[in-house]
Amino acid sequence: MIVKPISYNDINVNKMLEIRNLHKSYPIGDSSLHVLKGINLTVEDGEMVAIMGSSGSGKSTLLNIIGMLDEADSGEYILDGLPIKNLTEKKAALYRNKFLGFIFQSFNLINYKTALENVALPLYYQGMSRKERQELAMFHLGKVGLTEWSHHLPKELSGGQKQRVAIARALAANPKLLLADEPTGALDSGTSYEIMKFIQDLNDEGKTILMVTHEEDIANMCKRIVRLRDGVIMEDTKITQVRAQQYV
Amino acid sequence: MFDLDLWREIFQSINKNRVRSLLSGFTVSFAILLFVILFGIANGLKNTFKEAFGNDALNRVFVNSGRTVSASEGLQAGRRIQFKNEDYNFIKDEFQDKVEFITGQINKNVNASFRNEKNNYNVRAIHPDHQFIENTEIKEGRFINQNDLNNTTKVVVIGRLVEEDLFLQTKALGKYINLSGIPYKIVGVFADDGGDSEERLIYMPITTAQRVYGNNDDIDQITLTYNPELNYDQALAFSNLLTSKLKDRFSVSATDQRAIRVHNLATEAKRVNIFNLALTSIILIIGLGTLIAGVVGISNIMIFIVKERTKEIGIRKALGASPRSIVSIILIECIIVTTIAGYVGLLIGFGVLKLSGPGLAAYMIKDPYVSTSLVISATITLILAGAIAGYFPAKRASNIKPIVAIRNE
Domain A45-71+85-247: what homologous superfamily? Predict the structure, then answer.
């Protein structure tokens, strides 16, 4: 078992997230399935990390815990200096809204809302005024090149366009950390590279990005690959980023 | 606190999920519609029943006389019993605290005429109390009073239809009507909802009739109402006592069923009350049944809606929605849909009752109606039930881990 040691006395202000000895198991009938068996992981500000592993390796579980969509059984999780522990639902909702942006494999847009309304939704939960959030949502839609599609419903958009709306939505609330769960899993390779280009652009602008994927070529477009197997980190390497631009 | 954005979210959700909103609304509308119609019909039945008994007092006792069937105290069978004024006074004095109103009655058939109009009518000679026993409604003038009796004045009070028949378009009050050759002054015109025959009667002071038709003090029939505070058993005891006292007074055998006949409406009144009670229970059961069906319907729909929206709830939570905002968005949507749908059902129900009301009269259903307040309380019950039924699944959904909710397909 290769575990990259974390130096505890090196308290770096640039640390975006820090995870120590994280455990998670799911009950299955009478027994339980130990999914995460002591994960230690530190991600610094501005990193772009791919979490890889075969299905069942615990990669999505890890991402969900980082995203406060799920809770760990034990271990420490510090997000941007803030310990995440025993959160009430209300507090978790507030943190998710303030710190985190989500991109899902299945886009998860609300189907009866237009692209613009979907992007504006996190801003609604921030309590922003209608006019402000529409302007801001429009700005982010513009960044993913969908200004003209702002009043279309998700069903009128292609898969790539849907994922771009989802990216705009994830960015709208200006989160510290962007979490992507197989963002290209439902897309063909051409569209995948296009989406990866947007994500790389975001990282170039300084956003910290954590991405779960099982595709090597997508993982190689990140700056660091963490490989999980059976609930432990097998390998954690920094790599030279492959730019998606060249495939688009 | 009015949150415009919250309402905008809710109305968008209702509007964009039209099938879902319409379906849940339909259940509520239908429940209220059924409630209104069934309740209306039941009330219509009740009205018909009420009408059948008119507004005559239900605590009446009729006292009639006939011929004896058996010999008694040395007197032969076949003797004719005839009431007189003194018998009227006897009952009045003997049962002072039990009798509410009492009147004697003499019936005569007369040829009535006014100018060229002629017709045959029944004259009923009575005491003033008769007005309260029959619930006679005076339209013009007055009823027969004690003065008329004391002075044996030749005055009459005629029915609405007598005025219509004989006086055509003119007023009868104050004019003189000719009854079998004797002119009587009309001092009043009355109406009675007991039917046409009741409104073709002519009332006359009993003393006048006694003087004019035989110069005696005979009374054909005595009608009285007993004190309404008497209960059923007391009322029966009273009429039994009255019977035996009268039989003693006329030396009639206690087993003679024909010479003195006392008919107490209390028996009928009891039957009416039992029927009314049964009808009321049926109405209550119908109302409750429809409401329960509606409550079950709306509960099912709320559970379904929350299930359908689980993924949306997960997405909203991932984007930062608090559990409270999730619950309120679902509940308020449910309340709005139920309120509007309930109102629609109420309007349709009232419309149906109004349109079909006249046609239903043939089926013993008269004036079917439901009070607005009753329907509104029924609607509020449904809204509350919907809110409660929606609250628990909504609360549960708002507490599911977002990731579980999102994965829910």
Answer: P-loop containing nucleotide triphosphate hydrolases (3.40.50.300)
Find how far residue B244's CA is from the centre of its chain: 35
A-B interface: how many C-beta pairs under 8 angstroms? 71
pLDDT values of chain A reduced to their tens digit, one per residue, 248 residues: 455 554 444 444 578 899 999 999 988 888 888 889 999 999 999 999 999 988 888 888 898 899 888 888 999 999 988 888 888 888 888 888 889 998 988 888 998 899 999 999 999 888 888 899 999 999 999 988 889 999 999 999 998 899 989 999 998 888 989 999 888 888 888 889 988 998 999 899 889 999 999 889 999 999 999 999 988 999 999 999 889 888 87
Distance (Å) from the alpha carbon of B317 to chain A's nearest alpha carbon: 6
Residue B406: closest CA among chain A residues belongs to which residue? A108
Residue pointed to by tokens 């995948």: A192
How near does any CA of chain B get to the CA of A108, in Å? 7
Could you list the residue range(s) of the whole structural domain that residue B191 is in? 60-268
Question: How does DSSP classify residue B70?
Answer: S
State which of B217, B240, B268 marks the end of a domain.
B268
Return the structure tokens found at B307: 């299930």
Q: Are B319 and A125 in contact (CB under 8 A)?
A: yes
Q: Is A105 helix (H, G, I), strand (E, B) or coil?
A: coil
Question: Does the beta carbon of B17 lie under 8 angstroms from any beta carbon of chain A?
Answer: yes
Q: Where are the domains of chain A?
A: 45-71+85-247
> Do residue B91 and residue B167 come from a single domain?
yes
ipTM of the complex: 0.86
- Interfacial A residues in 31-90 facing B (CB < 8 Å): 64, 67, 69-71, 89-90
Both structure tokens of A85:
């522990």
Question: Which of A94, A104, A117 faces B406 most closely, judged by CB atoms?
Answer: A104
* Domain endpoint, select from B268, B301, B333: B268
